[in-house]
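Human: Here is a favour to ask of a fellow structure person. Comparing notes only helps if you start from a blank page. Give me a protein, with the fold worked out from its sequence. Please set it down just below, with no commentary around it:

Assistant:
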Amino acid sequence: MEACLDKFNFRARVLPVYLTLAPAVLLVAALVPAGLELLLSGAAAVVFVPISFLLSQVGADFGKRLEKRLWRDWGGPPTTRFLRHNSQEFNEVTRDRVHEKLRSFGLKVPTREEQQEDERKADKYYESCTEELIRRTRDKKEFPLVFKGLVEYNFRRNLLGLKPFGVLLALGSLAGTLCSSYASWSQD
């Protein structure tokens, strides 16, 4: 039960789905206000918790599917790109400092020459470094900025993954609102 409602799942997974559905819900509320009345009782929680869990999975699935395409279009995951010696996203001094820090953790960071010899192998090392850093920074109390960045990234990725549905729902809701307004106006 706690996993369904924690800060990460709610903000990064459930909230994008709610925002995507909001136009349709608002249309239904405008057309049938009595139909959306929900008593704030135990029954509401019984309905809300499973729906939130389901929505968190749906939002994450669409985001993860999109992420693979984004990474391919971007030339790899952001952290892998940042760690490459030829990256223009960090200045060389910052990148060298990050590489040294990773080496101090006992991680293999390819040299510029090793990267030029085999870029795919170098990327595997960079991905391994990223995985190790993720493992070491899982404690959200000890690393609150890492957790905040993770939540923001997942929220944006999942919301972007739901964009086609959001656009369709918004256009459908707009059409429904216009039809409803026209029907009300023409009756007068």
Remarks:
- The CA atoms of residues 56 and 91 lie 37 Å apart.
